[in-house]
Amino acid sequence: MGFIFFSAGAWMINSEVLVLNSxxxxxxxxxxxxxxxxxxxxxxxxxxxxDRYVRSPSISIRIPSVISIIGYxxxxxxxxxxxxxxxxxxxxxxxxxxxxxxxxxxxxVDHVIPRSRWELIxxxxxxxxxxxxxxxxxxxxWCNGRKGNRLLHEIGWQxxxxxxxxxxxxxxxxxxxxxxxxxxLPFCTFNVKLIDMVRTESY
Length: 203
Known about the structure:
Blueprint: E1 4-5, E2 16-20, E3 26-31, H1 32-40, E4 44-55, E5 60-69, H2 84-90, E6 107-111, H3 115-122, E7 136-140, H4 141-147, H5 152-155, E8 172-175, H6 176-181, E9 192-195
Parallel strand pairs: 2-5, 8-9
Antiparallel strand pairs: 1-4, 2-3, 4-5, 6-7
């Protein structure tokens, strides 16, 4: 079945739709094209719709912003993968040294015990716990540069909190602005991490 997209540019075909399970828990984000296929095949129902339509010779459908999968109550949940990005998300995009929040481009991760001091201080090799949840924290590039290869007590710094391995992290990461503009906010209370696109802070 071919649909005609009107009252919108070609980008509308690839616009995003939030997918909920039958318990209204967000499970993924999909394209408008796939969302319409799910609706027309009666595998999903619309939850939030826009005032615009897509049409075929036989039917007209309001453009969905949120859909719910019929009869599917599961949601993704698995062990949190260790990665630089997940360390930053664990720490809520806050530099663990200065406490400020930054845009992603100005964030990195820092080893609490630096590489050059690891073996002497811990008595372990670099393969034994150096690059792990408990020795990595989110840091802004300014603090990261200032700290260098020194230990925190040597420069009088303290962490906002001790680093840890998270047992759970939301499956979806969505900006607050996107969620608000797409009508997704009411559904983003579980399994979603909302982030602000904060401006760069300067010193």
